[in-house]
Amino acid sequence: MVLIMKLSIRTLVVALGLSLLFSLTTASAHSPDQLRPARPLHGGLLKTVGKLRLELVVDSAQSRLYLRDDSDQRVALEGYTVSVKRWTQMLALPVALESHYFQIDLSAQEVAGDRLLIVLQQPNGKPLRAIFGPFPET
Fold this sequence. Notes:
The protein is α+β, with helices and mostly antiparallel strands. It has helices spanning 2-27, 32-35, 108-111, and strands spanning 45-49, 52-58, 63-69, 81-86, 92-93, 95-97, 102-104, 116-121, 127-132. The strands form two sheets. It has a five-stranded antiparallel β-sheet with strand order 1-2-3-7-6, with no helix packed on it. A four-stranded antiparallel β-sheet has the order 5-4-8-9, with no helix packed on it. It is elongated, with a radius of gyration of 23 Å.
């Protein structure tokens, strides 16, 4: 009985030590930026897809799509391509690459009551998809 009790205490101590060690290494694997919730930096709608954050800003004249990583750092857009389609018509919309965002030829009035399907083709060839909307009626 004493031998079983010693083994049980030893097993408990080892298990507690391993769980403490695991929790410390897990907690330190993430920076504070990665632990806080994502927030839109340009006043748009935010979607997290994979390790990227896509922020879509729709205003009265045009729309813009910004890309950031999971630490809220701007992503270099070279090698990325974007296709945008309105949900109700599934028509492709013109997209132009600017210095740090994609410009989409679409105004808030044109997308009112609709959704947008955005397909982001990554440099590694893997596509990421996000659906934004429905957008409010103007």
